[in-house]
Amino acid sequence: MSSTTPTSVSPGASPTPAGRWAPVLALGGATFSVVTTEMLPVGLLTSLGDGLGVSAGTAGLALTLPGLVAAVAAPLLPVAVRRADRRGVLCALLLLLAVADLLSALAPDVIVLLVARALVGVCIGGVWAVAAGLAVRLVPAASVGRATAVVFSGIAVASVLGVPAGTVLGATAGWRWAFGALALLAVAVAGTLALALPPLPAEHAVGVRELGRVAAVPRVRRGLVVVGLLVTGHFTAYTYVRPVLERVPGLGAGEVSTLLLGYGVAGLVGTFAAGTLAAHDPRRTLCAVAAGVGLAVGLLVLAGGSLGASALLLVCWGLAYGGVSVSAQTWLSAAAVPRAREAVSALSAGVFNTAIALGAFAGGRVADARGVTEALWLGAGLALLALPLTRHRD
C-alpha cells in the first residue's frame, strides 16, 4: 500500500486550480470553526464558572460533554443523512453550530449551557465524519494529500489562532461575547460552504451494518486502534504538559504560553508535512508519527529543568502530533474501498473523540495518584504501543 487511489473530481467542481481549492479552503474553515468552538472553554473556565455560579469542575463539563456526544454522533450522523447532499449537510451543521454558540452566549444557567454544548458535539462529530474524506472528491489525485492537510489544518489553526483569540475576547468583553463571535463565524462559514462547494451527492448510503463491515476489515481495524492509542496517549500527556513545563526554573506563565504557541505552530507545519508524505506512503508516515510522539513525550520528562531541551522537545511533539490526523485519514481511506470512505471517516471521528475523552480522564487519574510526570510516561507508552501496528505490512 503506497497511496490512496482517488476518484475523479465531483461534477460541478470548477476545472480551474483556484476553483478546485476554494471548496477545500471552505472545508478547512469548517473544521477550524468546530475545533475552536470545542476547545474555547479551556481558556474561559474561570469566567464561565463565575458567571454561572458553578465550580470550575462543573464548568469543565462544557469541554468534556461535546467530545462524548461527538464520539456517538460521528458514526451515527452519516446513517441519519445517508442520501442527503453533503454540501447541504455541512451547511446545516454549521448553522446548527451557530445556534449552539448563540444559545451558549445567552445561557442563563449551566443546564442550558450544557444543552448547547451537547449540540456542539453533534456538529463536531458530523462535520468530521462528512468533511474528513471529501478532499478526494474535490481535487485531482496528485493534490489529495495537500488538500487533506488543508482540511485537517483547521485543528492546528484553531489551537494557534482561534482559541487564543476567543480567550482574549472573553477576557476583555466577557465570555458571552466570545461565544457570540463564534456564532457569527459559524454563519459566515456556512455561507462560504454554500457558495464554494459543488453539489456533493452521497456516494453510497451508509448504514449501521456497513459500519460494522468496514470496521471488520483488518487494515481499517488496525488503523482505528492506532488512532485510539495515539490520541489517547497524546491527551493523557498533553492535558498535563503545563505543570511539567513549569518545573523549568524561572519559567513563568507568559513563557509557558509562548512555548505552547510554538507547539501549535509546529503542529500546523507537521500537518502539511505529513499530508505530503502520507500521500506516497501512509504506513511509514504514521509509523514515524507514532515514534515521534512517543519519544518526544518520554524525553520531555527526562529533560528536567532544561529550557532548551524542553522547548526543542515540545516543538518535536507538535510536529509529530500535527501529522496524526492527516496520515491516519490517508491510511484509512486507502484501506477502505471508495464506496466506504465516508463510513471509515465516521468511524475514525468516533474513535478520535472517544480517545480525547479517555486520554484526559486517564491522565487525570494517573496525575492525581502518581503525579503529572507519570501521566506523561503513560502517554508516551500508549503512543509507542502503536508502533508495532504501523510497522505491519499488508
Automatic annotation (TrEMBL):
It holds the Pfam family MFS_1. This is MFS transporter. GO terms for molecular function: transmembrane transporter activity. Keywords: Cell membrane, Membrane, Transmembrane, Transmembrane helix. The keyword ATP-binding does not apply. The keyword Iron does not apply. It is a multi-pass membrane protein. It is found in: Cell membrane. Residues 22-394 form the Major facilitator superfamily (MFS) profile domain. It comes from Streptomyces phaeofaciens. GO terms for cellular component: plasma membrane. The chain crosses the membrane at residues 52-77, 89-108, 114-136, 148-171, 177-202, 223-241, 261-279, 286-305, 311-332, 344-363, 375-391.
